[in-house]
What we know:
The first copy, chain A, has 8 helices and 11 strands. Chain A has helices at residues 13-23, 74-77, 80-92, 102-108, 124-128, 153-166, 168-177, 196-205; strands at 2-6, 30-35, 39-42, 49-52, 54-55, 64-67, 95-99, 116-117, 133-134, 139-142, 145-148.
Amino acid sequence: MEVAILLYEGVTALDSVGPYEVLHLMPDTEVKFVATEKGLVRTDFGMLSLSADYSLDEVTRPDILLLPGAPDPRAVAADSSVLDWVRNAHEHTRWTTSVCTGALILGAAGLLQGIDATTHWMAHAALQDFGARPTLERVVRDGKIITAAGVSAGIDMALRLAALEFGDELAQEIQLIIEYDPQPPFQAGSPATAPAEIRERVLSKYELPL
Amino acid sequence: MEVAILLYEGVTALDSVGPYEVLHLMPDTEVKFVATEKGLVRTDFGMLSLSADYSLDEVTRPDILLLPGAPDPRAVAADSSVLDWVRNAHEHTRWTTSVCTGALILGAAGLLQGIDATTHWMAHAALQDFGARPTLERVVRDGKIITAAGVSAGIDMALRLAALEFGDELAQEIQLIIEYDPQPPFQAGSPATAPAEIRERVLSKYELPL
């Protein structure tokens, strides 16, 4: 099975590395990090680069397409060559997926019309611009399109993908190998569970330019 | 605050990227990825490289030291220049930490003598070789040494670190930004919760060369 994870300048590292760490453990699976040009891509806060070993034209028919997000995905979501590649790949994928604001790239490619989808909670309104139905769940499946909520949600999505393709037991094996027994020290991981004052503070400190 | 994350050939990507995604959101914090030589480091399954912008001699007094693990950390755990760097950095750190088998690098540096510590569940026995007390918890703190269990546990550890340094509310803000509201589709993330047959299958398929 071939998995293509799109990288681009300003991508959020965990959006791609979380699912990667699950998906590469699926049987006979190769995960290919792809970008407009192969080489290094700087992540969103400038402290880390990730390598794309493949250019877009080298990976045209992935079984699974995964679009990670970024605090500002507008540049990549406006790049017609990337959007063409996404649309063409989507025609043949088994699963077309996104993490966080990667959903807005799917949307810009026209793939979310009338689709239930999610994204980072701060970007939900932007989904409607693309005709999607914003859905406040951590992982949302609509046909072969699966979208995940913000940043860390890609891990949960990837385990679901592993189960869909290879069964629950294989997904459980992967979960055990990456020891994914999460124990967050607080109940603050979603706008529904976080204390209201925490939510307000995040909204006042950060703004997604969408 | 300065955070140093050690990279080395064969490192597990999520061990470093998980905590990074939390720690770089702490106020006035720079996360520096360091390696013996600056440049690219290939991760454990050959599909992705991460960039170390700093060499060891450029980052000698980090406030937080973080050692990620690898399926086989023996080469780096036997590199005397790395162990010297770890010991010297530890003298001045506020927190010395590890994820997964990164604990075995701490152990090889002699820092786990008589210390409660954890690592990937498949590597627990190896902790005893370094005089540590293997502790089956997801995040274990003993003085200023904090060790986390396998791969994904670094996210939980990093949120605890953020809370220790900047208070619970700041850690909650970070948790909400990375939307860390984990919903694993199965109860299989630790040897205690995984079905016995899943555990046996993982043990028969994989072996850590420790």
